[in-house]
Automatic annotation (TrEMBL), chains A, B, C, D:
Its cofactor is FMNH2. HAMAP family: Chorismate_synth (MF_00300). GO terms for molecular function: chorismate synthase activity. The keyword Chaperone does not apply. NADP(+) binds at residues 48, 54. Gene3D superfamilies: Chorismate synthase AroC. Reduced FMN (FMNH(2)). Pathway: Metabolic intermediate biosynthesis; chorismate biosynthesis; chorismate from D-erythrose 4-phosphate and phosphoenolpyruvate: step 7/7. Pfam families: Chorismate_synt. This is Chorismate synthase.
Length: 365, 365, 365, 365
């Protein structure tokens, strides 16, 4: 019940500040016999790391993950096999320059958690945002790398579908395009539009919000649970726990408010092999909190970062009115790097529900 | 971790099926010394109960709540005082006619949880929807009645802000109007529009989605927690757990995706009495998962009920393709009755976080 | 995390006071498809109920259990089949005479929880002990009745092995004798000894402690978990939660402190059918927190009830020194009625670990 | 609910194997503003570490703890101040020689968890006992070092009170003696007896069980909770989770079974300053699961380690009958080093209940 863990059977506890010696996570509940390589986990972290294009922060963080427990090596000396004990992963902080933070130590940046941390705790690690830094999400992405392996056949992918008022054309959706541009955009036609738009934002020292869509295929029908153990409920919680997220929706989401029962309900038929199929997927793969077997689809809205060059009115911890301007390298659109984070949270949520349904130990099969 | 409870310190466990002898809840964690009357709790249930206008189901359910434990009576013989032990509340089912359910026992109603329950459990109480019936929410509303008393000065209110494509005009918002119309509409100008629109839906045997907004005032700054114990995360989870909800947003929510950092961040100043104030509330009262002290604002989208008179394609549990038409009395817009349910879930979430922050027992003061 | 539940996947929440309208429990997490009759559950309650011999309290409580949710009836109209939804059970209080409690409302009975409840909560339902009454254990016994059905082949039995300094002769152990005497004694030779001894205690208005042994056979090897999810750890917790229990031991327990590694370690051989067998069971069926497949054996010590006729020095809630003498019908040895309670707690613990290992839903098989 | 955490608000998650690169823990829920030095934490680890006398294992493990997160340094550059975020602690494994483990990789050592791990997980890190090694307890001791600081005025101490059949004389109890001998014995008269006895055990390559007593003073009256959140219940669980523990008792424990209600119930009087006092402490500081304010007293029995030089009958994972003899350096009496571990578990349990009662954040005062 303390506040740095999520999941029940696939349980992830993260720790670490932006400017401490390291950050990491403990993945408790990974079943035994799951096979993966360090390179596979690192690949997800690389997708999240900064400095990959001019549209994300220019900070240098290599984000190299180490695995400290919970695995044995296969005979190839490279493949790790989980043993069912906790998998501890650590990412050392290498770019924590000992610069002067005295200016922001007392000033509350508008839109940040500086003020609320101080109200709650009376003490706050202000260096680089401390615990509230988006660096914490590196640990989530590492945990997600394990989660993806837990459910046989699971594929979790994400894409950016909106920046500011500019939305993709869903008719153009092509998963193969997502890694061909710096935005994780599934619609190649939107790329030049976003490039030009974000260049403007970036040069103005401003920032802009975005919407991410994450999709899980291969989710076994029947996982999840009704009432308060709903799969969609846990997806909503886990996506909402990502920094800067202000809204979450499942399937057609808020659009469901605008349509009729006839339009909304997914009809069923018997498909090939006598398998039940839904003829549409407005439900986003979940009915009554339980997976239908169709893709699980969720979207989440990320607010624009408050780290902007324009001065904003604020106060400091001594009760003075001040004006705050956040200097330094920042993400003009934090939504871009939120794509792998959203994928990781969705993968962890599904792994957790899979284990609740199937049991936790080696005799899963 | 079983799936019929929510909350950690203010913990609610609900039980009961639509057509069993009764349903109810156990509220575990209510601090001692909380004072309330049965009439106060009943009033919230009355707000949710069916049959109050032509725009909701015409079923008759009196939904009279009994309190079986956890309280002592004050000397007036009417005011109950919580003792810190679990408060068990029960609502007997009085309208469970023993009719023939054989037709729907095997047919999966499209858009309902019939199919997924069967996949998961292999057995399902099909009478009146069983556990997945919206009747379960009566227990939530009763629990919410207790929760509202736990946090001194807390006021939780809700309103319907959208039916289909018809939205209220926020400039007209007047809380005093909410109880003056059958829709919990805060904008009197929308009432005739919705009346005409919903009459059409109802006569066609169709249904329509909606959006509800819930607001909590008097939330103490500092409650909540960062990372995975976020107040907004738990609000998202608990609202998403309501039947038919497909999306949740906090503060400006999905609209935050469309604006810049300058527009979005709520600036601060020192207000009257030297108290920090935010000059706007785009954050919906929560920063970094922790309450700012400003109103907590959330919205959720409810899909249209799938109980409609039009035949829809489906299958049955024997693998036959069938057409399903849901006869009987139903809610043309379940979003209306979702207002008190959303309020209850918000109140319970805030009470839970309040106790996490302040501790659980009598010496709270 | 509130304090009236135990178990994780087989989760039991109890509620109710000794002198309220009813008490009961919600069993959340019972898998679907479990079959039982009301008479089977009632039989366990009858074993615990008072008034069955002169050695237990002479109060009249019929303890009739009602099942309010979570089951459907089989075609025989009698067998209940669990549906996977919460099973709510209620026992109405029929003997709650509205007598004058003013004398004990303010006096702290030595050895009872009166003082600590008041320190913690500042309010206390003093009528008949309120929530701290042993009546609460009736709900545990009902839950245990369900738990016994969850694990195929599980048999849980208990016996009284010590009253005061009088211990059974383990060489005489015969399970068939347990229900042939008013003490649940497995050794017929001890019965006359205990009868004479307890008659003396009873006539003196005194009380005496006891030790209960509970044994579970048919526990599948492999359930449980290492480190902090140990089967023995949860057994210890759940037995210690029974009123008046002051010690718990597993297998040879405290006697293990006195012997050598050679004597203590259970050797192994390949048994009939190639099945691994242990040649002794000092471990009490658990190694490293995980079941070996041999019987799980636990014992617990129950202190003598503090409800005695001799005056004892105490204080009242106004800070006065007083002398307290507890009048009325009481159990000279509460350990006797603790036998079915211990069985129930052991059964619930094993059911919980079984589901953690195997998963929670219908497709367990 | 995964199995490597304990506590609810003061929540400790441990990770790591005996022969991996490191082991450690995450302490989640430490309130902000708690001050301590690394040296203070290290001192507890030093008390547990091997090689300190001829009566414990001769392995070399320095067990140097690093703190990776959750603290800021005070101006002295040495005192750490908790910030309310997770405190991650790591102990690198320095003595993990890459020796040949092939012999024990398949053989189940009698009395160890080798067999049950294999049954449960189908894979097991056999190197040095892997996760089931007592090295895991180093992380508990580190966490206990933090816990001791959380409750103002709390003093937790432990002592060895029995080795084999040789018990201390309680009349000689002197806490000052505990650190003057290699056994943590509070009775100097027992020291030569134990020395001679254990020398014999050690030279024979045998082992022997023991009993540890742990005592917490300064536990505020009112912490704990009734029914299933009992302080004694959690103490029992947490002590039982220590490797090799087979029994736990609170206060007079199993001895309570042998005495009358008159002898057992602790009488009360008004003490100095009008403060309620108990005239004895048979209850071990806990009534109805709630602390009385008197010292909390618990004892636990540790079985003799199964690592002995005598051959014992066993089987291997291929189903062959084998004889196993555990070579190498071992503890003749693991109970000795269990003293600081028991202290740590008691301190963590009390810190957890303290926070449940008082709330988790900075405004505790």
């Amino acid at each position: 019940m303390s506040h740095n863990s999520f999941g029940h059977l696939f349980r992830v506890t993260t720790w670490g500040e932006s400017h401490g010696p390291a950050l990491g996570c403990v993945v408790d509940g990974c079943p035994p016999g799951i096979r993966f390589t360090l390179a596979e986990i690192q690949a997800w972290l690389d997708k999240r790391k900064p400095g990959q294009s001019r549209f994300v922060t220019q900070r240098r963080e290599d984000d190299l993950v180490k695995i400290l427990s919970g695995v044995m090596f296969d005979e190839d000396g490279e493949t790790m096999i989980s043993t069912g004990t906790p998998i501890s992963m650590m990412i050392e902080n290498t770019d924590q320059r000992s610069k002067d933070y005295s200016e922001i130590a007392k000033r509350y940046r508008p839109g940040h958690a500086d003020y609320t941390y101080d109200v709650k705790y009376g003490i706050r690690d202000y260096r680089g945002g401390g615990r509230s830094s988006a660096r914490e999400t590196a640990a989530r992405v590492a945990a997600g790398g394990i989660a993806r392996k837990v459910v046989p056949g699971l594929v979790v992918r994400g894409a950016l579908v909106q920046i500011g008022k500019h939305r993709i054309n869903r008719a153009n959706w092509d998963w193969a395009e997502v890694n061909n541009n710096p935005f994780f955009a599934p619609d190649p036609a939107i790329v030049p539009v976003w490039e030009e738009y974000l260049d403007g934002i970036r040069k103005a020292g401003s920032s802009i919000g975005a919407v991410v869509e994450v999709v899980a295929e291969g989710v076994p029908a029947g996982i999840g649970a009704p009432i308060y153990g709903k799969l969609d409920q846990d997806i909503a919680a886990n996506l909402m726990s990502i920094n800067a997220v202000k809204g979450v929706e499942i399937g057609n989401g808020f659009a469901a408010a605008e349509i009729s029962g006839e339009e909304n309900a997914d009809e069923m038929r018997i498909g090939p092999g006598g398998k039940p199929v839904f003829l549409s997927n407005n439900a986003g793969g979940i009915l009554g909190g339980i997976a239908t077997g169709h893709p699980v689809v969720a979207r989440f809205a990320i607010k624009p970062t408050s780290s902007i060059l324009t001065e904003r009115r604020s106060i400091d911890s001594d009760g003075n009115e001040v004006d705050v301007r956040t200097k330094g390298r920042h993400d003009p659109c934090v939504g871009i790097r939120a794509v792998p984070i959203g994928e990781a949270m969705l993968a962890c949520t599904i792994a957790d529900h899979y284990l609740r349904d199937r049991g936790q130990t080696g005799r899963l099969k």
